[in-house]
Every structure is written in C-alpha cells, then in structure tokens.
# Entry
Amino acid sequence: MPPLPSADEATRILSRDDSQTTLNLYKTLVLPAERRAVERFTAVCDQSNAPLKAPIVVYARLVGYLMLYPPSDIARTTLTREVASCNDPDKSDPIQALYELGETYTNHIITLFKSARGTTPSPASHSSGYACDLLGANCPQTLQLAPRDHASAKQSALARDNFRCMVSGKVDDISERAGFTQRLPNEMFTITQCCHIFPDGLGDILQSRAGCAEYANSSLWTFLDRLGYRDVCEELMRPTVGTNLHRLENILTLESYAHLLFGRLDLWFEAMEGQPNLYRLHAACCRIVHMSGAADYFDPISREMEEIGVLAEDVVA
# Structure
C-alpha cells in the first residue's frame, strides 16, 4: 500500500486558507502516526509470518486520506475537530488515540458499504420466486417510486433500468422470458440482482432499542449526519414512515459479477454534475479505502462484524 502524501504534497492539496488547521494536524500528528505504525508493523512481520487482520498503519492512512480527500467540506471539518481532540490533555498517547479514531471510521465505512453475507439473496436462491412475480404480468405497470421490500424494489428497478444491468447493458434473462423486454441480435443476457448502495440490512433501527447490534446500526445514521449527509439520512430514514432503504434512489440493477465488485468496493460510480444521486459518498469512500490499503483487510473485518450481528437480518424491524 502506498504511503500518505508528504507534508509538501499535502500543502499543495490543502492550499485553502481554511485548511491550515487540517494541514498542521496532518503534519504533526497523522504523518508521525503513520511512521510509528509502519515501524511497529514491520517489527511484527519480522517476528511472525501470520498476517495482521487490520494493521494500525491502515487506520492512520485512512484518517490521512479522509483529511486530504473528504467526501464533503463538513466531513473535513468534523474529522479535523476529532483529530485535534486526540491531542487533548486527557489522552496519554495522541497517536494511539488517532489509531482508535481511524479504527472507528474504518468500521463505520465497512458497515455502510460492504456487502453483508446473507443480506442480498443469491441468484440461485431467489430466481424462481422472482420469476413467478414477473410472470404475474404486473411488474412494468406497477413501478413504485418508493418500494417497501426487496422484491418490489427489484421489480421497480428493473422496469426503470429497461430490464438491463446498468453497467454491462446485458438483458435480464428472466424478464425476457416473462415477455417484458426483448433482446436485440447483438445483446447478451444475464441474471441481475437488486443492489443497494446503503445495505438494506441497516433496516428500521430505532434509537430506543437497547441491543448492541441495534446501537451499532443506529450510530451509522449519526455517522452519516456528522459527515454532512443529513439529506441522505432524511431520504432513507424518515421518522414518520421508518427507514426506506428500498427506495429507487438507493437501488442499482447489476449483474452478479458487477454486484460482487460493488459490494467489495472495487466498483463505484462517479456523480454527474447537476444530477441528484447517493453515489458521491460511496465513491469518495471507495477511493479512500483503496488509497489507504483498507480494501485488503475488508474481508476479515467484515466477517468479524457479521459474527457480532452488526448487519444481521434479525435486527430489521
């Protein structure tokens, strides 16, 4: 994984007057934290052949890249304030406090965007039921702008996307067999899946619930708000109707391999100027995850989080 940009490079990136505090913290705390982490990581690797699941160098670099390339100005302001708090007198080791902050951000980003096993049905497990739904001949006529469950979201997104994968353009095989679309001579077919930008496993989580898993999920909405995405929270979590992760703005129609890449944060979409979307946060986090090296450690971390039920289906109301 590449090192963080040098102090001189960061000075060029953070050239605005209102970024001086961020720049100073980057130079005096983040870069030293990275250096210490690399030294500790190298020493551990020299002593053992067992790979570390999430070395602290990842936490330092993720904080650094978030400071340099934040998903929003509010996110940079929030992170700068939190990094500054690592220097508080009550913190015996500011660098260790920075690692802990980086771990928190890493876990939140993973939980927000990393596909959870079991959340989205595999093609084999849902194709027959999905085909029966389509063969009911009501899918194209009943496109719902705010579907309330996985099946209706799948159907509505298919109709919106002309029964094709949004990335490859391949025709959804079941939709063609049901007579809702027709392949052109040069078009290929595939099995598509309903892909959520924000995982539907976040569900209807209420702040009043006392369980560990419920608290972890509800804290994600607070995390989004702190990063400047209150509008996303308001779109996906309206107090009067509960969470609606199935609304079409949060749904993509993707063939299976594209869905896999998207869930691993290896595929993302850049926002188009002037068009509303929910991708801007997802794309920024994907880039930072890859620059920091955190992508290499997503699988073991996400497995640990699944074991404690952070995205377990039984927390969905």
